[in-house]
Specification:
The structure is a single chain. The chain has one domain. The chain is 22% helix and 23% strand. The chain has eight helices and 16 strands. Strands 2, 5, 8, 9, 13, 14, 15 and 16 form an eight-stranded antiparallel sheet that branches. Helix 5 (251-260) crosses helix 7. The protein is globular and about 60 Å long. The chain starts with 18 loop residues before the first helix and ends in a 13-residue tail after the last helix.
């Protein structure tokens, strides 16, 4: 019996910009820009795994201080009575707080923010996107593995941060605010993205242009109590501390991570975390205060042979600076960092900046 072959799916035709598209694209200044995809497809490879510490790779902990530059709000998704959190407003959107009522940034929020930048400057897949799958360029669909069939090949970012059914090589602790309490801010109502405005989001071939990032600004818009939505937030005077653990990283992989954290003076970028990004919220700069790095397998043996291990592997001050610069140079000399994409990203996430937040609708 002859079977009728299934028709092949065709890529959608290139969209033609409408008059509304042109109006939106030309008459409004956008607070964001796109970082293009690298010319080569994602670089697939087998991750290091967790079964052992590779003697040729790096393992350790980075101690971070996150400095708030514009008001920060990482929402819990809960709107609570102001009296429940000792605020003067009737209702307020809340942030996570610790037992001593200090603000917290969830480790998952930090990981997502940092991962998105790492993906943009490496040959990595387009992970967790809401874009139509038929609009994604060939080769850039999210990495998928099949452990039963031993198909464990993922892109540059997924090898470090993890993929579905595969644990990453770095872990983020929740970041704890050094101060007790919070400020009350008043965000304007934000509108959803409009992907139907095709000439903004898609290229001439009908594929997504790239990865979307919001610009940093010198301040954030606050509408005041009469017009804005009350939110718990940390302002510029606030500082958070956290730790980032890593294992089985190649020097160039750690170096790329350090570039993402803004440690390369040639590419002074800052993180963009939480809600209100279009109106200038969420800018944070990163300071690495100390690092514990185990580069020799003997370090691990000594660590677990004594009840009180020494801090011989603790890096600080000049030794820390030298270590950071060495890893960054290794990353730039390798083929891991895509220089064109890094330059594009730096134009968007450069900090300090003299850019003003957008006024009105955009």
């Amino acid at each position: 019996m002859t079977q009728t072959p299934k028709p092949k799916l065709k890529k959608p035709a290139s969209p033609q910009p409408s008059s509304r598209d042109n109006l939106v694209a030309n008459n409004y200044s956008k607070p964001y820009q796109f970082v293009s995809f690298p010319r080569e497809r994602p670089n697939l490879g087998k991750p290091a795994g967790h079964d052992k510490f590779d003697k040729n790779r790096l393992h350790g902990t980075l101690f971070l201080r996150l400095h708030v530059q514009t008001p920060l709000h990482v929402s819990t998704g809960i709107v609570a009575p102001g009296s429940d959190v000792e605020s003067r407003v009737a209702l307020i959107k809340t942030m996570t707080q610790g037992t001593e009522k200090q603000l917290l940034i969830q480790g998952s929020s930090l990981k997502g923010c940092i991962r998105s930048v790492y993906e943009a400057i490496t040959r990595s897949c387009l992970c967790k996107t809401k874009a139509d799958i038929q609009r994604i360029p060939d080769g850039y669909k999210e990495c998928k593995i099949n452990i039963k069939r031993n198909r464990i090949f993922v892109c540059d970012a997924c090898r470090i941060f993890g993929a579905l059914d595969w644990q990453g090589l770095i872990e983020f602790n929740d970041a704890k605010c050094e101060s007790i309490g919070f400020n009350t801010g008043f965000m304007p109502s934000l509108h959803r993205p409009h992907p139907e405005v095709r000439n903004i989001y898609l290229n001439s071939e009908g594929e997504v242009k790239g990865r979307k990032f919001y610009y940093h600004t010198i301040s954030a818009i606050d509408k005041g109590q009469n017009q804005g939505i009350a939110v718990q937030q940390a302002t510029k005077a606030y500082t958070f501390t956290t730790q980032l653990q890593f294992k089985n990283l190649k020097p160039e992989e750690l170096g790329t991570l350090l570039v993402v954290l803004g440690q390369d003076s040639k590419y002074p970028i800052a993180l963009k975390i939480g809600g209100g990004k279009p109106i200038g919220m969420g800018t944070m700069t990163v300071e690495i205060t100390q690092a514990k790095v185990l580069q020799n397998i003997q370090d691990w043996k000594q660590r677990y042979c004594k009840y009180t291990p020494k801090n011989d592997n603790l890096l600080a001050a000049e030794t820390l600076k030298l270590f950071i610069q060495t890893q960054i140079q290794t990353a730039h000399s390798s083929q891991l960092i895509q220089s064109e994409q890094l330059q594009q990203l730096t134009q968007i996430l450069r900090y300090p900046t003299d850019r003003e937040p957008p006024e009105g609708k955009y």
